[in-house]
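To whoever is on call:

I kicked off a structure prediction for a single chain this morning and the downstream step that reads the tokens threw a length-mismatch warning. I double-checked the sequence; it's 66 residues and nothing unusual in it as far as I can see. Pasting both halves so you can look.
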Amino acid sequence: MKTVTINVEGASQSQWSTFLLELNLMKKAWKRYGVSATLKAPSINKIITLGTTHVESTKKNRRSSK
């Protein structure tokens, strides 16, 4: 197993979330080539879940029932 440590400074919360989502996309893309990667960060599961869901499915319908 090989380990890489990345220290990120100066990123806003939005940039941090986007960074983690892009790393997750790389992880998924490399999986088909036999590369197994794990990501460890605070609240990473929550960020990935919220970042990969479709907005339409989570948005409430605000129209009246008339």
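Update from on-call: the warning came from a stale cache, not from the record. Cleared it. Sanity check on the structure: The mean pLDDT is 87.
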